[in-house]
# Entry
Amino acid sequence: MYGILKTIHSYWSFLVLFILIIASFNAFIGRFTSREFRSKDLRISLFGLIFSHIQLVIGIVLYFITPWFNQWSELGMGVMKNNESRLYLVEHPIINILAIILITMGWSMHKRQSDSSKKFLRIALFYSLGLLLVLSRIPWNTWI
Ligand code: HEM
# Structure
């Protein structure tokens, strides 16, 4: 179960990063070219939202079954003294949850706007900020 979930979480990350990059660029381009917000734009942003939410759910389950989790009972707050355990147990989950909150905010704020330019701006800012947060806490040394 752990191995399968870790592999899914790992491969799903490619999809999440890919769609967030596309959604952010698409929104910036839409904003700067002042074009209309069409159903294609809505779908791209919606995919970004759904894919990152699925990753959130997988991540939360993985958190409790990863061997890293035992470090809490073995070391307690000592997990903060080790770079790796701090990354997996504290920084990676918290920053990614924050990133997904931002993406969700961007999605719901764009829905409340009727003006295309404002829709693009909400998606562009919140999705790209979320993307930067996700990128900042990927365990690059062990991934791929
Ligand atoms: C968009 C959000 C996220 C992305 C892109 C992401 C990406 C990744 C990547 C690339 C790895 C390394 C996988 C590997 O070494 O094969 C990883 C590991 C991990 N992630 Fe996430 N993650 C996200 C959200 C979360 C969340 C929200 C949690 C927990 C609440 C979480 C928990 C974990 C854990 C516990 C590991 C370590 C698994 C292990 O090595 O045993 N992730 N994540």
